[in-house]
Amino acid sequence: MTHHPPLRHRKPQVRRPNDTGDAVTQKSPPRTGSDFSRQEAAVLSSLPTTHQVLTVPEAMAALQYSRSKVYDLIRSGVLPSFTEGRARRIPLDSLHMYIRTRLEEAA
Questions:
Q1: 88 part of a folded domain
Q2: What are the DSSP calls for 20-47, one per residue?
Q3: pTM of this prediction exceeds 0.70
Q4: Alpha helix locations (H) across the chain?
Q5: Is residue 8 part of a domain?
């Protein structure tokens, strides 16, 4: 029996036809300073309000990062986490601090 690695899920690109009928990929407009506060509010509002800690999949969804990116952040110490048995948990405060730090670095 062969072991297969888990499938990685990719977000489909939004493709819209242009005037000539060819499909083109839409790009996001450049971000401005006020967009960051809206972006932070959008991320924070997507977090569960009843939890003090998040699972890795919940952090992935909140940050819109891949599983490997979240684990890279954890491994490097940028995103503090802890394990309880075999379960990895990320404190909500750690996620908030990471988002604030990234926004300050981008400004």
A1: yes
A2: TS-EEE--PPPP-HHHHHHHHHHHHHTS
A3: no
A4: 33-45, 56-63, 67-76, 92-106
A5: no
